[in-house]
Predict the 3D structure of the following.
Amino acid sequence: MKKEPGSEREYLESYNHDQFKKMSVATDLLILTIEDDRLKVLMTKRSEYPFKGHWALPGVFVGMEETLEEAAVRGLKEEVNLENIYLEQLYTFGGVNRDPRLRVISVTYMALTPPEKLDFKAGNRVTEAKLIPVEEVIGGEIETAFDHREIIRYAKWRLKNKVEYTDIVFHFFPDMFTLPKLQKAYEIIAEKKVYKTNFRKKFMPVVTDTGLEDRSGGKRPSRYYCYRPEEKS
Amino acid sequence: MKKEPGSEREYLESYNHDQFKKMSVATDLLILTIEDDRLKVLMTKRSEYPFKGHWALPGVFVGMEETLEEAAVRGLKEEVNLENIYLEQLYTFGGVNRDPRLRVISVTYMALTPPEKLDFKAGNRVTEAKLIPVEEVIGGEIETAFDHREIIRYAKWRLKNKVEYTDIVFHFFPDMFTLPKLQKAYEIIAEKKVYKTNFRKKFMPVVTDTGLEDRSGGKRPSRYYCYRPEEKS
DNA sequence: ACAATAGTGTCTGTGAGACAGTATCGA
DNA sequence: TCGATACTGTCTCACAGACACTATTGT
């Protein structure tokens, strides 16, 4: 078959080298939440080789007809039945031997949610899934599959940085929350104590008082606030 | 052929679905520099379909035996004969129809360099390459291939953010530089004027005076500084 | 009354913004 | 001397850190 140099056909063929055939692209999900005053990540126990019995991040392969973000959203829906939550691309990991079976490029996405919204027991999944404190993963107490320990360490680092100059803390809470709880979450992520006064000065401008109170504490009740329902016009 | 459920073999086969076969992974490079008081990006003129005659970012496909970063480093070496420069992963673009020929996931890397180190005329490249002001690309004055205009817009945004709270400005300069020039670069990237006094207060702690002077200005000479040769012990 | 938690007032220090002033070059 | 550029001193103001104080609950 005759080839026209520089033609579309020649290009299509040149890209079909065997070299580029066996790479797969996946999105791995870092579903993070705060529970019992600890930052936790959702992991699934592998029931198959390799790393059978180890814990891994949930993930899906990217289909030919979906974007990376669509794949991440699909994964969230399939694995934890979760929709409409905060999602951001974290980093792309492409080590050669990340997966001993085949070359997998993993585009990781970070999802933040209050623990109440997680529903990983239901659904049609067979594999075991649970929230694991990131400290236990990073500390090596948990047997972790692939390079997922590194990925989790990176996510924790990114979160720690962003919490100081953005409003991501709010994504760990439902519509209503109390400032003491918000502060506690902030301190866990930032890994440092802050003064009540300064914390409130910082976030008061972006929250609004609901008038409701949380009387579950036993002591003086704290007020419920909402995030930014009054955006300044 | 008999299959053992849960075996390694079954897994390998299940990942060989046609669905995951035709995706390619590339790294596109954003080689940024400051020249003539403008932020510029290196682009190459496409000599083939598609987007023939349009300008595109340099990039290489990721080989099976190299990591993403190794591919980026190789691309830098091949395209602009550049080594040992600042390189950071920017973002991964995975739109379905980014490339009309085949599905390409593009892991983009941002490289910063002084313009003197660029050597894209030499080498064995046949395609035309030149530095184009990012404003012209974003403004639509330049015919841009694929989604590269979006990528460049994102890089500019990221750079603008990082310049305020990191030391990336220094990567646009060789070992020695004057503070007025450094400030000018800062202002171009941050897209705002700053006061000399405050700029110096901010960066004086991380530079050291060489004693040398730049007498090319015609007026009062400015001193040459180095970046952090005196890291505090 | 008391312990415990929620919430406020205010002093201090740091660092950016603003601007006036001094220093050094060529012509 | 003059214009232009390099460099410095210092006032102000916003904001985070620090800490003492008041307020409201259950027991």
